[in-house]
Amino acid sequence: xxxxxSIVSVLLxxxxxxxxxCSGASTAxxxxxxxxxxxAIQTYAPGVVELRDRFPELGDYVAQQDWVNIRSFIHGxxxxxxxxxxxxxxxxxxxxxxxxxxxxxxxxxxxxxxDAAAADFDPAESARQYQLAREDLNAFIAxxxxxx
Length: 148
Ligand code: ZN
Description:
By secondary structure, the chain is mainly alpha-helical. The radius of gyration is 24 Å and the shape is elongated. It starts with a helix and ends in a 6-residue tail after the last helix. Residues 17-21 have low confidence and may be disordered. It contains 7 helices and no strands. The protein binds zinc ion. Zinc ion is lined by residues 106, 110, 132, 136.
């Protein structure tokens, strides 16, 4: 009886160590940016903001149903967008990085659909995909931490 009890208490102690070890690992994840992390992100963020600031040019082509320029703008200046989004997303905190990566994928999909809609001379679908891409890009930019 006494021997059984001591085995049980050794097991319980081992389980307690295991549980503490696991929860310790999950609480160790940082939830705020250090100044160095923000500075690193801020070296890549302007590349994204620059393309967001050029989005109205694309909007003008969509409004004018200028199919040729919609397509050359997507393949020209916006061709860099996906890579630039990836460089920023990779440097965000885990919880934001996941959201940023799915927004980046969405933006890429909307631009592909806009490209296809322009190839089909479809004004309604072009306007819709442009708007969705713009909203997702603004949501992405909202995740970028700013310098204090
Ligand atoms: Zn979307």
